[in-house]
Amino acid sequence: MPSIGHDVEVLLAKQRSGADFAITQVFFHAHEYSDLVTRARRAGVTIPIIPGVMPLTSVRRLKRLGELADVDPSPVLMERLAAADTEAERRNLGVAATVDIANAALDAGAPGIHVYTFNEHAHALDVLDKLALLRPARPTNRVSTMARPQEFVG
Q: Which of 29, 46, 116, 143, by CA, is between 20 and 30 Å from 103?
Protein backbone atom coordinates (compact mmCIF):
# COMPACT_ATOMS: atom_id res chain seq x y z
CA MET A 1 0.00 0.00 0.00
CA PRO A 2 1.42 3.41 -0.96
CA SER A 3 2.25 5.84 1.80
CA ILE A 4 3.84 9.26 2.17
CA GLY A 5 6.98 7.48 3.39
CA HIS A 6 7.09 5.41 0.22
CA ASP A 7 6.40 8.49 -1.92
CA VAL A 8 9.29 10.32 -0.24
CA GLU A 9 11.61 7.38 -0.97
CA VAL A 10 10.54 7.49 -4.63
CA LEU A 11 11.21 11.23 -4.75
CA LEU A 12 14.67 10.72 -3.26
CA ALA A 13 15.42 8.00 -5.81
CA LYS A 14 14.29 10.23 -8.67
CA GLN A 15 16.42 13.08 -7.37
CA ARG A 16 19.47 10.79 -7.08
CA SER A 17 18.82 9.67 -10.68
CA GLY A 18 19.04 13.25 -11.90
CA ALA A 19 15.42 14.41 -12.05
CA ASP A 20 15.03 18.18 -12.28
CA PHE A 21 11.53 18.11 -10.77
CA ALA A 22 8.74 15.75 -9.80
CA ILE A 23 4.99 15.76 -10.38
CA THR A 24 2.69 14.27 -7.77
CA GLN A 25 -0.09 11.85 -8.44
CA VAL A 26 -3.57 13.33 -8.33
CA PHE A 27 -4.67 14.27 -4.84
CA PHE A 28 -8.10 15.16 -3.52
CA HIS A 29 -7.32 17.14 -0.36
CA ALA A 30 -5.13 20.24 -0.24
CA HIS A 31 -3.22 19.15 2.86
CA GLU A 32 -1.96 16.03 1.05
CA TYR A 33 0.36 18.12 -1.12
CA SER A 34 1.77 20.22 1.72
CA ASP A 35 2.21 17.11 3.93
CA LEU A 36 4.15 15.37 1.16
CA VAL A 37 6.38 18.39 0.53
CA THR A 38 7.11 18.85 4.23
CA ARG A 39 8.11 15.21 4.65
CA ALA A 40 10.12 15.23 1.42
CA ARG A 41 12.08 18.35 2.40
CA ARG A 42 12.88 16.88 5.83
CA ALA A 43 14.21 13.77 4.08
CA GLY A 44 16.47 15.80 1.78
CA VAL A 45 14.41 16.21 -1.40
CA THR A 46 15.41 19.54 -2.92
CA ILE A 47 13.92 19.32 -6.42
CA PRO A 48 10.68 21.19 -7.12
CA ILE A 49 7.58 19.12 -6.42
CA ILE A 50 4.73 20.10 -8.71
CA PRO A 51 1.22 19.14 -7.62
CA GLY A 52 -0.80 17.11 -10.10
CA VAL A 53 -4.49 17.94 -10.17
CA MET A 54 -7.31 16.84 -12.42
CA PRO A 55 -10.74 18.29 -13.03
CA LEU A 56 -12.90 16.53 -10.45
CA THR A 57 -16.01 16.38 -12.62
CA SER A 58 -16.91 12.68 -12.83
CA VAL A 59 -18.07 10.46 -9.97
CA ARG A 60 -17.06 7.33 -11.89
CA ARG A 61 -13.56 8.67 -12.64
CA LEU A 62 -13.07 9.87 -9.06
CA LYS A 63 -14.01 6.47 -7.67
CA ARG A 64 -11.68 4.68 -10.08
CA LEU A 65 -8.81 7.07 -9.50
CA GLY A 66 -9.30 6.80 -5.76
CA GLU A 67 -9.02 3.01 -6.04
CA LEU A 68 -5.91 3.19 -8.21
CA ALA A 69 -4.16 5.77 -6.04
CA ASP A 70 -5.48 4.32 -2.78
CA VAL A 71 -6.73 7.77 -1.80
CA ASP A 72 -10.29 8.63 -0.79
CA PRO A 73 -12.00 11.38 -2.76
CA SER A 74 -13.94 13.92 -0.74
CA PRO A 75 -17.28 12.36 0.25
CA VAL A 76 -18.90 15.80 0.17
CA LEU A 77 -17.75 16.41 -3.40
CA MET A 78 -18.82 12.91 -4.44
CA GLU A 79 -22.31 13.53 -3.00
CA ARG A 80 -22.60 16.93 -4.65
CA LEU A 81 -21.50 15.57 -8.04
CA ALA A 82 -23.91 12.63 -7.77
CA ALA A 83 -26.79 14.96 -6.87
CA ALA A 84 -26.12 17.36 -9.76
CA ASP A 85 -28.96 17.40 -12.26
CA THR A 86 -26.95 18.28 -15.35
CA GLU A 87 -23.52 17.72 -16.84
CA ALA A 88 -22.96 21.49 -16.75
CA GLU A 89 -23.66 21.55 -13.01
CA ARG A 90 -21.22 18.64 -12.43
CA ARG A 91 -18.63 20.42 -14.52
CA ASN A 92 -19.01 23.67 -12.56
CA LEU A 93 -18.84 21.88 -9.19
CA GLY A 94 -15.82 19.82 -10.20
CA VAL A 95 -13.92 22.70 -11.75
CA ALA A 96 -14.52 24.85 -8.66
CA ALA A 97 -13.28 22.04 -6.37
CA THR A 98 -10.19 21.55 -8.53
CA VAL A 99 -9.43 25.27 -8.52
CA ASP A 100 -9.72 25.31 -4.71
CA ILE A 101 -7.24 22.43 -4.40
CA ALA A 102 -4.83 23.98 -6.92
CA ASN A 103 -4.98 27.38 -5.21
CA ALA A 104 -4.33 25.77 -1.82
CA ALA A 105 -1.25 24.03 -3.27
CA LEU A 106 -0.03 27.29 -4.80
CA ASP A 107 -0.62 29.07 -1.48
CA ALA A 108 1.46 26.33 0.18
CA GLY A 109 4.37 27.22 -2.11
CA ALA A 110 3.89 24.96 -5.12
CA PRO A 111 6.14 26.07 -8.00
CA GLY A 112 3.33 25.50 -10.51
CA ILE A 113 0.49 23.14 -11.31
CA HIS A 114 0.32 20.08 -13.55
CA VAL A 115 -3.20 19.42 -14.84
CA TYR A 116 -3.98 15.84 -15.77
CA THR A 117 -6.59 16.01 -18.52
CA PHE A 118 -7.60 12.36 -19.00
CA ASN A 119 -8.86 13.42 -22.44
CA GLU A 120 -11.08 16.11 -20.90
CA HIS A 121 -9.15 19.09 -22.21
CA ALA A 122 -12.12 21.47 -22.03
CA HIS A 123 -12.48 20.84 -18.29
CA ALA A 124 -8.74 21.36 -17.82
CA LEU A 125 -8.91 24.65 -19.71
CA ASP A 126 -11.78 25.73 -17.45
CA VAL A 127 -9.57 25.04 -14.44
CA LEU A 128 -6.69 27.03 -15.90
CA ASP A 129 -8.96 29.97 -16.78
CA LYS A 130 -10.40 30.09 -13.26
CA LEU A 131 -6.96 29.86 -11.63
CA ALA A 132 -6.10 33.23 -13.16
CA LEU A 133 -2.39 32.42 -13.28
CA LEU A 134 0.06 34.93 -14.68
CA ARG A 135 0.64 34.38 -18.37
CA PRO A 136 3.41 35.72 -20.57
CA ALA A 137 2.40 38.66 -22.71
CA ARG A 138 1.38 37.69 -26.21
CA PRO A 139 2.83 39.72 -29.05
CA THR A 140 0.25 41.90 -30.77
CA ASN A 141 1.82 41.31 -34.15
CA ARG A 142 3.58 38.06 -35.06
CA VAL A 143 5.81 39.83 -37.54
CA SER A 144 7.21 42.01 -34.76
CA THR A 145 8.52 38.91 -32.99
CA MET A 146 10.31 37.54 -36.04
CA ALA A 147 13.73 38.79 -37.07
CA ARG A 148 13.86 40.91 -40.19
CA PRO A 149 16.02 39.47 -42.99
CA GLN A 150 18.57 42.31 -42.79
CA GLU A 151 19.21 41.46 -39.14
CA PHE A 152 20.80 38.19 -40.30
CA VAL A 153 23.22 39.85 -42.68
CA GLY A 154 26.67 40.30 -41.18
A: 46
